[in-house]
Sel1 repeat family protein
Amino acid sequence: MEFKLFMQAVEQKIDNFRSESEIKEWLKNYARTIEEERREEFLKQFEKKKRLSHKEELKAVIDWCKKIEEQEELVLSCCGYEEYGEYYWDNDWVYEYEDPNGIGVQLKQFYQLAEQCVFDKDYKTAAAIYWNLGSLNFTADDQSGGDSVDLSVEELVQENIVTLDLKRIALLTLYSTYQVTEMKARPQKLYEYFTREMFREIKLDEIMAVGIEPLEQFDTFMELWITYLRGHQERWTSRLLKEAVLYRYGEDGLLDEAKKSANEHPKLFIEILEKYYDAQHWEKLYQEGKAALSLMERRMKIRGCAARLMAAGARALGNEEEVKNACIEAFYSELSAENYLRMITCEGITGIEKNNALNYLECACKKVKERGRKPDIYLRYKSKDTDEYIIEEKEYLIIQFFSQNFWAVLSECKKQKEALGWTGEYIGTGVPLLLFLIYKGSVYPPGMQAILADIQSKIQYQNKYNEPSFESVAKIWLDQVKVDEDMEKAILVYLQKIIDARVEAIVSGGHRGSYNKAAMLGAALGEAEESRGILPGKACRIQTYLSKFPRHRAFKSEMKEYQ
């Protein structure tokens, strides 16, 4: 039960007592049920807690923190070495730490002091201790002569230099800070703490329940807190805003907030729509999904998720026209191959709508190229819910395949001259796509089933919201495709050459981790040949590979999976 509901229920129960004597009688009866080891703790609850000052002890904490910051003798020591994994390129630089100056022991004692301050109602001292300790960076000198290493309190715990209950520290930090900070300054002061990882999952009811005194004027604070959160868009802000709105206004208030903050905190809307989906409230899902699309900026990637949820509602209601419209909007917001394939296989999709979508894609790609990227900034960038979808060149080429620009796909695959080194390259997706294209059978044998699964994985196709399966949309798409004879012959000749070369390179090179890939491609090629009337096809091709590599048992085992 949530803290607010629990306290409301407690007040109702107390109001049910008719007199003070009834309350006393209830307390005595409850006391009789308490186990022996908890009786002293129960009796302590009746003691009136006095407010004690720890001001003098705060000075010792501040002095110690200065020594840590100035690295005056109080430093850790470390020794770094390279640790290798299963493969030669799988390595990492690892440090082992020592604490010759007892930093971890002292840190733990100061955190214990801070907790005592909270329970002695000296919130000002507690807040000051938590702030000073939490802001520290601890230096470790590398004994082998390398650069020194800086560690936060959280990292000290991760490296087993000290054992601390970080969640409890976070709760008491927020609780004591709330108690001593003026109302207008509280939202900003508390939010500063949530930028740190150890605070990210802390909940409001946990803060309210941690101390011995209530948080005064909490409803007033919640109004200020909600207003403050609306103006911030970090990854964790939506969770805080949702929690605050639910506490203050309930479920109905959350929908209102989602509409107000559709472009600042779109995740709120998505969570509401997903709740409707889980509860199978199809009409609400459709209507509110439509509202979400009208309120959210089209450029935001997350809007594509809202469109897919709207489509789920429309699909359940049998409204295929609105399913199509939602799928179009999903692609415009998230220009992925997955969304493109869903869109072009929708019932009633027109040639004009397909062309408009491709024109929109070309404009978006042009903007990306003009804008460019600074790799160092991009690598440090932390995603936000309001981000737009940046299409990569490889995904653009996959969309080109599904838009039937097969020459572009074949040309791109041919740029890769080597039969190895396909990881991360377009050819790793292009070859399976081309195999799928030239297969003429109505039933998919093992090799082609594996190819379909591989394509689905690479384009990241999901049917999370009761959407058509990948195999079904792939079949719908294939029924629409017309490939001229010259194109098909060129693709088949290319696939025969490149797949034979790849199988040869993988198996003869002893790349055991890729034997399954080689077997899948070889078997699927044989199945495609057979489906096109080239006999004996698969059986002959498999036997050729096995005869060529008679001593490679692991490869034989992989190949037999497709016989």
Observations:
- The two ends are 57 Å apart (CA to CA).
- DSSP finds 28 helices and four strands in the chain.
